[in-house]
Amino acid sequence: MEQQVRRWLENGRALGLEVTALRLAQQAAARRGLSEEGALARQLRTQAATLEALSCRMMAAIATVEDSRLRALLTARYLTDQSWRQVAQVLGYSEMQVSRLHRQALRELHKALHT
Fold this sequence. Notes:
With 115 residues, this protein is mostly helical. The protein has helices at residues 2-32, 37-63, 68-79, 84-91, 95-113. It starts with a helix and ends with a helix.
């Protein structure tokens, strides 16, 4: 059950990385004066709109988690794309503690989404 929630969050995170890659490709094409810039721009607009909608759903879902530590963990990892090490540093926990908290956060988020 938590795996479904994790996949959903990871898909949002991956889409964010894809949008970033498209932006970089569009900028590179523009610098070189390539005709593919228009196609990249259209693809970027489509993906960015999808990402914005998904990010809004993710933020709303994460906001339903009662524990502020768990909300901070989910936000740092999935919305701001921080590494597990960065998440641990920001929260002041070891990576092992963050791993445990992450499992708890996924359970809480799953409950919130399915009640």
